[in-house]
């Protein structure tokens, strides 16, 4: 369990993290989303004691990170996969970490196997690809078999096989009752991986909650219906709060009404339906809506290529 109260980090005049409070519950994967510079890494660094809050506090299992006797066994973190001495081998890096934290050498071999690094564990880390470095970062985070994992962009640089592997890994860690808190800019991946979301922009919380609830609250849902009697159906369901858009012949898109209500009304009036379905927006759509005003580093559309 991670609990932040009024957590704040200022760099000079700039509030990187601005009075945020949240709880990351065990047994779930919580996705941490936000545009570049929103404050995700700063928040994660404060959780593991690498940055000191300007105000407020953050605890892991009831204590600040530094007050745990064996922090690596409590919290595993992947924050900067490149922060490993390039001249060392992966195995020697992990063995050094294990030795300084009272962790057995057997566990080093376990995490090497678990992260698919067995074939390269004796090689210099300086020669690792981005994806291999990420795997080593995840191995380091798993070393103390911690109850809480904090992973900043764990799928960055991984190939599709690696991305799927991380998804299964974090889901199984959460199923074991662990707390998993991870950031990613890959929305489709996050939608498949996370149970809960915490979305921040300019250091403030924009929204938090179960993934589907966050999507629905931002974008709403649309009922799509197709019927040879679409006009009659539209007249029946037209009420305050229901928005009706006519699509191609015989199809309607309705907002502010449930699938059940549309189906019930159609049945009650003997109206034949050829299609009735709920259309949900993607997490990417919801995220774009949510963060529209919180993007600090906006890109300009690319000019059309001259022919
Ligand atoms: N050591 C530092 N000194 C000054 N400003 C900093 C420092 N670290 C972070 N910042 C600023 O704090 C803000 C939050 O940065 P942070 O790295 O936490 O964002 P982020 O959400 O992790 O971004 P990204 O998605 O790009 O990784 C940014 O404006 C950043 O420039």
For the structure shown, list the relevant keywords.
six-stranded mixed beta sheet; 13 strands; 34% helix; single chain; binds adenosine-5'-triphosphate; Alpha-Beta Plaits; alpha/beta; Rossmann fold; 2 domains; 307 residues
Question: How is the secondary structure organized here?
Answer:
Elements: E1 2-11, E2 14-24, E3 28-33, H1 40-47, E4 55-60, H2 71-74, E5 75-78, H3 90-100, H4 105-114, H5 130-142, E6 148-152, H6 160-175, E7 179-183, H7 187-193, E8 196-201, E9 204-210, H8 211-219, E10 221-226, H9 230-237, E11 243-246, E12 251-255, H10 259-268, E13 275-280, H11 283-291
The protein binds adenosine-5'-triphosphate.
Adenosine-5'-triphosphate is lined by residues 11, 16, 34, 36-42.
Describe this structure in words.
This protein is α/β, with parallel strands linked by helices. The chain has two domains: 2-210, P-loop containing nucleotide triphosphate hydrolases (Rossmann fold); 220-284, Alpha-Beta Plaits (2-Layer Sandwich), CATH 3.30.70. Helices cover 34% and strands 26% of the residues. It contains eleven helices and 13 strands. A six-stranded mixed beta sheet has the order 5-6-7-3-8-9, sandwiched between helices. It has a four-stranded antiparallel beta sheet with strand order 11-12-10-13. A three-stranded antiparallel beta sheet has the order 2-1-4, with helices on one face. The longest helix has 16 residues, at 160-175. It is elongated, with a radius of gyration of 24 Å. Adenosine-5'-triphosphate (ATP) is lined by residues 11, 16, 34, 36-42. The site of adenosine-5'-triphosphate has 10 residues, from helix 1.
């Amino acid at each position: 369990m991670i609990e932040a109260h009024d957590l704040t980090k200022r760099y000079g005049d700039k509030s990187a993290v601005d009075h945020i409070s949240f709880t990351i519950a065990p047994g779930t994967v919580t996705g941490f989303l936000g545009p570049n510079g929103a404050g995700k890494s700063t928040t994660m660094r404060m959780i593991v004691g690498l940055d000191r809050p300007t105000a407020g506090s953050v605890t892991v299992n009831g204590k600040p990170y530094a007050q745990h006797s064996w922090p690596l066994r409590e919290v595993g973190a992947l924050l900067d996969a490149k922060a490993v001495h390039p001249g060392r081998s992966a195995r020697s890096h992990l063995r050094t970490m294990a030795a300084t934290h009272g962790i057995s050498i057997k566990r080093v071999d376990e995490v090497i196997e678990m992260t698919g690094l067995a074939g390269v564990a004796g090689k210099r880390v300086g020669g690792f690809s981005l994806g291999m470095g990420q795997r080593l970062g995840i191995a380091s985070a798993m070393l103390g078999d911690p109850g809480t994992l904090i992973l900043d962009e764990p799928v960055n640089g991984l190939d599709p096989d690696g991305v799927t592997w991380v998804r299964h890994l974090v889901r199984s860690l959460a199923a074991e009752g662990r707390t998993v808190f991870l950031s990613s800019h890959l929305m489709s991946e996050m939608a498949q991986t996370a149970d809960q979301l915490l979305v921040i922009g300019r250091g403030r919380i924009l929204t938090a909650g179960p993934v589907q609830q966050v999507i629905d609250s931002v974008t709403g849902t649309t009922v799509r219906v197709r019927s040879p009697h679409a006009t009659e159906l539209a007249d029946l369901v037209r009420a305050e709060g229901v928005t009706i858009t006519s699509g191609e012949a015989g199809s309607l898109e309705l907002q502010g009404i449930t699938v059940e209500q549309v189906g019930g009304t159609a049945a009650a009036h003997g109206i034949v339906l050829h299609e009735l379905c709920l259309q949900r927006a993607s997490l990417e759509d919801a995220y774009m809506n949510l963060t529209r005003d919180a993007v600090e580093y906006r890109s300009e559309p690319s000019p059309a290529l001259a022919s």
